[in-house]
Amino acid sequence: MFFHVQKLINEIVPDEPDPAAANALQEGLGGQFGEMRTMMQYLFQSFNFRGKAKPYLDLIQGIGVEEISHVELIATTINRLLDGSPRYRGEIPANGATPLNIALKEGNIHHFLVGAQGALPIDAAGNPWSGSYVYSSGNLVLDLLNNLVLEATGRLQKCRLYEMTNNKTARSTIAYLIVRDEVHEKAYAKALETLGVQWGKILPIPKFDASKLPEVKRLMDMGLHNQLHHWRLDGSEMGKIFQGPSPAQDGTLTTTQKPPEGAPIKLSEARPEEFSPGLTPELERLIQQIEAVKV
Questions:
Q1: In angstroms, rounded to a whole number, what is the distance separating the alpha carbons of residues 42 and 63?
Q2: Which domain CATH number covers 30?
């Protein structure tokens, strides 16, 4: 079973909304190599895991649980990039007003038409996320190999996303995911090394000096590129694998016992022009009664 803390795994830096950047980030959420796939792939691999190889199960499952937070983070980032886009005040439609006219000019119209200025389980081209993306073969080595390719491709695409926008909201999340994808590359590479496969000469993928990206460098200076948390309340054997020299030869790997501090989640504002949440005075009174209930 899983527990939830109502915090984001990383802070989202505020900036002006940008619907085009929001649509680009949809690839990192619902694309073939996005966060929804990594989450589902690692969780299903852990659900289907067989045999006495618990350190490998704990590694795959621990990363899968972290990916749940990544889905939450990138979806929330997309929401911030859409909310009130750009610089307009929500208003109740009257006298033929067109407060949603921006939907015809930038980004993905479905963000406004279907999602009420919210993230959707789709890629940047509007294709729905598919369970067929998930690779779970039941063979440990094959699964680890596929996971490494998945993380490397995801990191490659996020580096490209970084180069597409200078929006601070988008970049704060993209930079964080670039760093975490590299950690996950190292985790799966380390697991393969324990099984006799050597990856040191090619990692990380893409191979470049990530410290040249200011937002990424700040996170690397904090050591986040070599840290992995196990996300277990009852103990984990992940640290038997994720330890020692990094496969990328850039420091020492550490399995942390304390989870990330996290950042507060700010509830999104009501958007009358989207009829969201569409509360009438009567419904608001009913909600206030529920909020007054003592538990």
A1: 7
A2: 1.20.1260.10
Binding positions for Mn(2+)? 35, 67, 70, 151, 184
Residue 222: domain span: 7-291
Alpha helices in the chain (DSSP H): 19-30, 35-47, 54-82, 110-113, 140-162, 168-194, 214-221, 281-291
3-37 residue pLDDT tens = 999 999 999 999 999 999 999 999 999 999 999 99
d(C-alpha 274, C-alpha 68), whole Å? 28
User: Do the domain assignments include residue 2?
Assistant: no
The more confident residue out of 162 and 272 is 162
- Cβ neighbours of 51 (radius 10 Å): 9
Indicate the number of domains in the chain: 1
Binding residues: 35, 58, 67, 70, 151, 184
91-103, pLDDT tens digit by residue?
566 667 777 888 8
Q: Which residues are annotated as a binding site for Ca(2+)?
A: 58
Closest C-alpha to 112, from 89, 132, 83, 90: 83
pTM of structure: 0.93
209 located within any domain: yes
Cα 255 to Cα 35, 177, 188, 225, distances in angstroms:
22, 18, 14, 12
Rg (C-alpha) for the chain, rounded Å, is 21
- Alpha carbon distances (Å) from 200 to 60, 191, 192, 226: 20, 12, 11, 15
User: Is residue 205 over pLDDT 90?
Assistant: no
